[in-house]
From TrEMBL:
Keyword Protease carried by entry: no
Any Gene Ontology CC annotation: nucleus
Alphabetized UniProt keyword annotations: Chromatin regulator, Methyltransferase, Nucleus, S-adenosyl-L-methionine, Transferase
Enzyme class (EC, first level): transferase
Main location group: nucleus
Name of this chain's protein: Histone-lysine N-methyltransferase, H3 lysine-79 specific
PROSITE patterns given in the database record: DOT1
Organism: Adineta steineri
Family from the record: Belongs to the class I-like SAM-binding methyltransferase superfamily. DOT1 family.
GO biological process, one term: methylation
Length: 194
């Protein structure tokens, strides 16, 4: 591996006290565009921090300068991550083990937060979405994704209850299964793909 191919990681600690989210950064200090060959994630880091603060408004601190942060600068993003992680680490140290901390962990994610998480998972798991569309039309191997908006609409219509089970036959990459498991209040969620 040459020096130019080294990828650095930036970490965001979780307010739940679980494993941190990892973001890659190539071995350059400045990225000129989002289309560079290695995923940077500067904008994704800022979006993630904003969503954490929506969920935990008491942790928000203006000195993070989220609106003016240079998302293409490794140095700026590293400083932002370090400040954010310090806030989160303090929150966990002061609150872990309390009823309020536990109660917050029992809450379901908001649809907005879930969609952000799903987009992160999808972008890491499906590195080349165009390859999913290479098939003979109308053959048994046709791949089609169900949009998050359609899944939300389905969940409103079927109104799953705590004693029901949801089964997705032909679950593909599992985005419907993941969506239902995260946002619906049902007993079990299964996906079957042949």
């Amino acid at each position: 591996m040459t020096h130019n191919n080294i990828v650095r990681e930036l970490k965001l600690h979780s307010p739940a006290g679980v494993e941190p989210a990892l973001f890659t950064w190539p071995n350059t200090d400045q990225q000129s565009t989002k289309n560079d060959t290695v995923f940077v994630g500067g904008d994704e880091i800022v979006k993630t921090i904003r969503l954490v603060f929506e969920d935990y408004p008491e942790l928000y601190q203006q000195n993070l300068n989220l609106s003016t942060c240079d998302i293409h600068s490794y140095t700026n993003m590293k400083e932002l991550c370090d400040k954010f992680n310090k806030i989160i680490d303090t929150h966990i140290k002061l609150n872990r083990g309390t009823e309020a901390f536990s109660a917050h962990l029992e809450q379901r994610a908001t649809a907005k937060l879930f969609r952000h998480i799903l987009a992160q998972v999808y972008s890491r798991a499906v590195t080349d979405p165009d390859k999913l569309r290479v098939y003979e039309p109308f053959s048994p191997s046709v791949y089609g994704e169900t949009s998050p908006d359609l899944i939300d609409s389905m969940l409103k219509v079927i109104n799953l209850t705590e004693d029901q089970t949801f089964i997705d036959l032909g679950s593909g990459v599992g985005n419907v299964v993941l969506h239902v498991a995260a946002l619906a209040n049902c007993k079990h969620v299964y996906g079957i793909e042949y």
